[in-house]
Amino acid sequence: MPPPSSSPLSDGSVAPKAAAAPANERDGALQELRRRLGLPPSSAAVADFEPIPVVPNPDGKLQHREHTEIPLVFWEAPAALRSMACPIDQSDATLCRFLRARQYDVDKAEKMYRTFLAHRARWQLDSILEEDDPLEDLWHGVAPMCHFGYDKLGRPVMIERSGEVRLNKVMSVLGKEDFYYRHLRHMETVERRLAYAARVYGPAVTQVIIIMDLANLSFKPDRHALPLFRQTMNIDTSFYPERLGAFFIINAPWIFRSLWALVRPWLDPRTQAKFHICGSDYAATLRQYIDADMLPVEYGGTNPLAVPPFRHLPDEYVAPAYKPRHMREGLQGGPLPDPEAASV
C-alpha cells in the first residue's frame, strides 16, 4: 500500500493532505448548500472557484496594471477602499470557501455560514469601515503593519512587524475587545482589497500573502500572546475561511521553533502547509513569490517605500474613551468562535 499523500512544511516536518472529494460530490455539496439557504440552483462547478496554488515562481513576473483607485502601499485604509460596498455575498465563490473549510460537509458548512452571517450582523461589519478608528495612530505605533503591493499572481501582500509588539504594554491600556475589533476592521479591509485586486488582476485572486517580521521579538514570557493569536486565528478560520494564500514568518529566532510547536496543532494540515518559517536569510525566498519592485528595500526588494516605523507607547498614554457603533446602539458583538480546526 502506498504511503499517505503529504506535503513538506518549511520547518522540515510533514503535513498530511486531506483527500479531496470527487468533483461530482463537491458540485452536489454546493447545490445542496444553496438549496438549504433558499438560493436557486447554479450551473457553476466548484472547480471554477479553486484558489490559485501558491508555489515558488522565480521566473514569473506580475503583469503591470495601473492602480488609480487604491494605492500600492498604504497602512490606513484609503477612502476609496472604505467606501466600497461590502463584498461579502451569497455567491458561489463565497459558498465554496465555506465548503472547502469544512471539507465539503454540507451540515458543517451551513452551520458555519449561518453563524458567520449572524456574527456580521451583531458586529455591524458591513459598515465597520465607515467610521474612523480613534485608536488608529496607536495601532500603527505599537503594532505597525501595512498593505504593500501584490505577489506575482496579483494577490495582495501585507507586512506586519510583529516582533516589535509588546502586548503586555498594549493590553495595559486596551481591552481584548479593542484588539478583536481592530482585527475585524483589518479583515474587512482585506475583503475589500481582495475585491479590488480581483477586478485588476482577475477573479482567480481570492487570497492574501502575509509577511510577519519577528525581528526584535522579546524572549520574555507574555501571557497575552498565545491566547490573542489563537483567538484571531479562530476569527479568521470561522468567518474569513480560505483567504490565506501563504504566510511567511521571517527573522524567526530559535525560540520561535518552540512556540510554533505549540501553535501548529491549532491549524488544520492544509493551513499548516501555507506557513514558511525563515530566519534572516529570507530575501531569496520572498523573491520567488513576490517581484523585487513589490518588496521594500529593507526586505530584499527594490521598492523605496517604507513600512511604518515602530513607536514605543508612552508610559502616560491614556486610550480615548470610545465605543464602536454596535456597542453604542446597544448591540453586543457576541461570542467569538470557539477553537475548531479549519483552514484559512
Structure characterization notes:
- Helices cover 36% and strands 10% of the residues.
- With 344 residues, it is of the alpha/beta class.
- The strands form two sheets. A six-stranded mixed β-sheet has the order 3-4-5-6-7-8, with helices on one face.
- Strand 6, helix 8 and strand 7 form a beta-alpha-beta unit.
Primary descriptors:
344 residues, alpha/beta, two-stranded antiparallel sheet, 12 helices, 8 strands
Question: Could you outline the blueprint of secondary structure elements for this entry?
Answer:
Blueprint: E1 6-8, E2 14-16, H1 23-36, E3 73-74, H2 79-82, H3 92-101, H4 106-123, H5 136-142, E4 145-150, E5 156-160, H6 167-170, H7 176-201, E6 208-213, H8 225-239, E7 244-250, H9 254-263, H10 269-272, E8 275-277, H11 283-289, H12 325-328
Parallel strand pairs: 5-6, 6-7, 7-8
Antiparallel strand pairs: 1-2, 3-4, 4-5
Would you summarize the structure shown here?
By secondary structure, this protein is an alpha/beta fold.
- Cα-to-Cα separation, first versus last residue: 32 Å
Helix content: 25-40%
What is the count of helical runs?
A: 12
Uncertain ranges: 1-18
Report the radius of gyration as a whole number of Å: 20 Å
Shape: globular
Spatial order of strands in the largest sheet? 3-4-5-6-7-8
Largest β-sheet summary = 6 strands, mixed
Secondary-structure content class: alpha/beta
Mean pLDDT: 83
Strand content: 5-15%
